[in-house]
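Researcher: We're teaching a course module on how sequence relates to structure. For the next exercise, students receive a sequence and then see the predicted structure as tokens, so they can try to spot secondary structure elements on their own. Here is the exercise chain.
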Amino acid sequence: MTTDRKRGPKGAKYFQTRTVGKYSYGNGSFCTMNCLGDWWGKHGTHVVDHIGRIREPIKMTPENAWVKDYTWDRNSNHVHYFFNKLTNERLPLTEAQYNDSTYTIERAR
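Model: And here is the predicted structure for the students to work with:
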């Protein structure tokens, strides 16, 4: 019940939630971090159960440790590559390959 949420003419005041787009927390779904926390407290367990709770540890192997990454070079350009988090190997990528969500390490080899 903060003053920035109070709306309406004198004598007919009411409280209204904030505009989500203005603050854009939680990928644009929440007006504040408190709002996100309140929602998660109410619905978080249901969401995790619906999507699928992880019951066993996820094991990273050299085969599944590849991620797309990039760095900046001296000329402020991106240098794109696949990076293996376990072996520290790098495989070069073009910017188009980096931006293509369907381009995987299997296609790069």
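Model: If you want an answer key for the exercise: The chain has four helices and five strands. Residues 33-51 form the longest helix (19 residues).
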